[in-house]
Amino acid sequence: xxxxxxxxxxxxxxxxxxxxNIGYYTGKIIIGIGLTMLVPAVIxxxxxxxxxxxxxxxxxxxxxxxxxxxxxVCFTEKDLNWMQGMIVVSLSWLAAMLIGAIPLYLSGHWxxxxxACFDVMSGLTTTGLTLVQDLDHLSYAHNLWRHFxxxxxxxxxxxxxxCFFIKGVSGAFKMYVGEARDERVxxxxxxxxxFIWLVSIVYLILSTLVLGTVGIANGMKPVNAFFHGACIFMxxxxxxxxxxxxxxxxxxxxxxxxxxxxxxxxxxxxxxxxHYHLWTGNRREIWRNIETRMLCITIVVIFLxxxxxxxxxxxxxxxxxxxRKGFYQVISAHTTTGYMTIYARQFINDWGDLAxxxxxxxxxxxxxxxxxxxxxxxxxxxxxxxxxxxxxxxxISPEPAIVEQRLHHLKEIFLEDKQxxxxxxxxxxxxxxxxxxxxxxxxxxxxxxxxxxxxxxAAANVGLSCGITTPxxxxxxxxTYIVQMWAGRLEFMSVFTLIGFFIAAxxxx
Amino acid sequence: MKAAINLIFFCCAVSYAQHISSTELINKxxxxxxxxxVYVGEAIGDVMVRGDFVWVNLNDGENAIGIWxxxxxxxxxxxTGSYQAKGDRLEIAGVFHRSCIQxxxxxxxxxxxxxxxxxxxxxxxxxxxxxxxxxxxxxGILCLVLIFVRRQSSRPGQLRRPAKLPQE
Lengths: 509, 168
What we know:
Chain A is an all-alpha fold.
């Protein structure tokens, strides 16, 4: 009847050693997160904000206690394997969310603990959707923490741990990959992590100076100007989209501010490998790279679609205004930042379906790989387009002809089926994630386009909102967006591994 | 004289227009575009001087809207809302723009008059004793955990640092 031989994979129950390894390295990362919370605590003390400083001290102490106990109880000298590395990453992100939410919840500006968790996950995953209440009266310390979370998550929680806490461990690479960074700038991951932080800190200092100076010229108080400058940089470079005031970028009423944030957003969406080439003077690589070319093409096409859409509904009285508003929102969406110079409801009320569809595409495509941006990513789109080209060439070529397709990403590469397969699988996973979130939105009674917009924004870690994300939205939808942000940022693999681990723990032998 | 004209204009504007919330302005922007509206909110953030005018953002509890007003009028504003202050609560009568041509398409109100409804004040922060006590208790627990961990790791043969392994 059947001559095939079937193998049934036996699921193995996780061993105690697996748990010890996972617990030990998760504990180390938790200690790292706890120590980063001392930064807002110090800022709180500097600004004489005693209660906010206490919020952060409490959170730091809880975190250190948990981290120390974990590293003590689970102490191990064994190295991580791939499965453990992936689980450490996905668990660390969940732990960071639960811990990072403590000071926010204690501030009283978040309606419930879930809301605070939502904002921390949004920050860590560089999304930028927020459920904060009365943001305009939030302390400097809490505001700094909101902007610091994308700075930690954008560069990578594990990347920080690799820089400072986990030295000389070969499992480092497994965690690094688990955090959706499969490219190394330098030969080893620890040097790569340090380079990522060097780039980020140099840009932070320069941008804070520039934005602070512009802020003062715009009439802001010097302290506010530099504080906002640092916060805006962290959220723009890490493509998060948080802002210190409730009006987002509209608060500043400044063209210059918009231009500078556009430049920072584009830098944030660039692969760190390209930053390396930029820094080492190899500018030719930037223009030859498939990611840069793909980003340029998709930005131009989507911008044109958006302009046509805006023109159809007559949203803006003049072409120049339409250009300014349209371009800012498209760049913000495409780099997956989420900064806005319009109010959330204006997307639905004023923009029309075509412009909105353009923005949804921009959000779905996203920025560069090994950057702080989310979404499908330009490299994967480039590979898929090249594969299509190859197939078309194959069809029109004589049968015996061998059709080769090359692409340039840091070096000349011959396109292989396994690359196309990997790109397509992740692209499909993203499309499914966007769709599932939209379905959940519709289940709660929101319109299709609104639901798809918000779901894509969450899953691609963008942060643009058409008004669904409010403190009053259903808890089920908040949880859905949290999962979407988490899975989207980690690019599925570590999340799937964690799910598999739990299944193995229950069903394994 | 100028003050009297402003007062008359303001009274007329108020008599013809009801306070409008920011949500209503955003949702029905086309309806209110170019019309004189009366908007009430708390001044927040910075009063940003731009030549003879200033930008001040007013938050009515739902959203904040940018108000473009004469520098002279802005002199009335003493406090703006932040963590350390409750901002002045202001009533603005002015022309609402859905997409202001003068200001790059921003949604704003060009104020013609301003009235302070209630003055703001500095907020004195009171130490939350519950938080302070909890911080001290946690600090004690943290010290105990640290002592325990250090003792365990200093025992010979108990714990050692992970050996340095070759990288990937």
